[in-house]
Amino acid sequence: NDTDTSGAQKELRFWQQNVNSSLLGHQDLLVSLGHFDYDICAIQEPYIGFNGKSRTNSFWHPIYPSIRVPEGCVSHSLLLINTAISSNSWAEVPVRSSDITAVRIHLDEGQILFIFNIYLACTHNDAL
């Protein structure tokens, strides 16, 4: 949990965007996020490279779907967690879909926040 110098807890700041599997769109998003503007970024249809992974930079922890994406398919969901958030305060939540990523964040006083990034295709509802 991030706190300012007065000890007050900061709000979590989210950004969500569909980059339509575009490398340029994905790179532009990473640049525009900055390091201190957002805590969590939910990306639908991220750019996925030849190695089956997306691109990120040193400011973000990428969270991919917890199941193996079938051969010839790509993940449609990616969460980025700002490295300014302690990795001791969050964990991936396993979900049986290549179109859903999820994390659990431990807040103050034992509260837990679950964040789900769900890609819903217009042609089916397989993610549900």
Number of helices: 1
Number of strands: 7
- β-strand amount: 25-35%
Structural class: mainly beta
Radius of gyration: 15 Å
Mean pLDDT: 86
Order of strands across the main sheet: 1-2-4-3
State the major sheet: 4 strands, mixed
What is the helix/strand order? EHEEEEEE
Q: In words, what does this structure look like?
A:
With 128 residues, the chain is mainly beta. The protein is built from one helix and seven strands; from the N terminus they run βαββββββ. It has one helix at 23-33; strands spanning 14-18, 40-44, 60-63, 77-82, 90-92, 100-106, 112-118. The strands form two sheets. Strands 1-2-4-3 form a four-stranded mixed beta sheet, with no helix packed on it. Helix 1 (23-33) links the parallel strand 1 (14-18) and strand 2. The termini are far apart. Mean pLDDT is 86; it is low at 1-8.
